[in-house]
Amino acid sequence: MSERKKQRKEKALDNKCPSCGAPIKFNPTAGKWKCEYCESEFTLEEMQKHNNASNVKNNENGEASKIEEIDDTVYVSYKCQNCGAEIVADEQTAATFCVYCGNTAILKNKLSGEFKPNLIIPFKTEKEHAIKAFENVSKGRPFVPKDFNNKNNIEKIKGVYIPFWLYDVGVAGDVDCDAKRVTSWSRGDTHYTKTDIYKIFRSGSMKFAKIPVDGSTRFDNDIMNSIEPFNYEEMIQYNHAYLSGFFAEKYDVDSEGAFKDAQDRALESGKDIMVNSSPGYSGKLVTNNTLVPTLENKYYALLPVWMVNVKYKDKMYIFAMNGQTGEFIGDIPLDKKKAILWGILIFVGIMLAIILISLIMFYAR
Q1: Which of 253, 234, 259 shows the shortest CA–CA distance to 163?
Q2: What is the pTM of this model?
């Protein structure tokens, strides 16, 4: 099997502590950059003042070579600027770590030009919050295996800035429905029911702001949709300094490809709003829908997510936590023995209750 290689220079950035020059990471709890060596803390303004958060002054030698291997899989290989070890990342990775010293490496070329995000929501939760959320996953779920949510089952946990397209979408048009209004009354021993049929016509327009669509094929769309919503009021202008201490991906679904999901969500929400704007009816059936979506604006943003991979009985389970709000979701296994036992206990309980009620009624005669 042959291997093809091609070389291309690329910049690999990291962020240095202005006080001691050691690698510095963003601290979500403090909302600042904290150096683990000298314990200095810096705001974004201070980082920018020292030219560490917004340019390549301290990263001029961070060149890398691109290697295209078999099956057209592309990897990026470069030297860690902190310890000199080799770091390899694939084509979609925009920020990663050195496995030897933990230094962050930001591949700036992957987040420049058309791939440069407009906006970012910085992490507000720590790794420990995701671990705690996993440990609490069995609360209120009696059928989860007893030893599943042991933190020792966590195979891998990482904070990832996931690429999202955000769309402002306008929706306008008409929605017509057939609807029912049912009234009932009784006279003497006779019960009457009256069903009136109505035609409902609705016409209007509405706007939906920043509908999110996952821009990476690596992450399951259902999982990404489930950890919404994000608080867009905390969204700020993108700065690659916020990637320090985290992984990041660049999009591989372009804005045109992702827009279909956004317009489908806008159309469905618009239809529901117009149908539900006529209360007091039942059995509404849409007979005409001429709603048309219009793209008004789009943004490319990086949103924070903790990805938790759990291995349990040789099977992998994927969990995700919203790195801003703490919303935690994922696939949970079912303890079949526990479910069967609960089913038996419930059945026996119901039968005993029936027998008890029957005996009470029998002796009450």
Answers
A1: 253
A2: 0.78
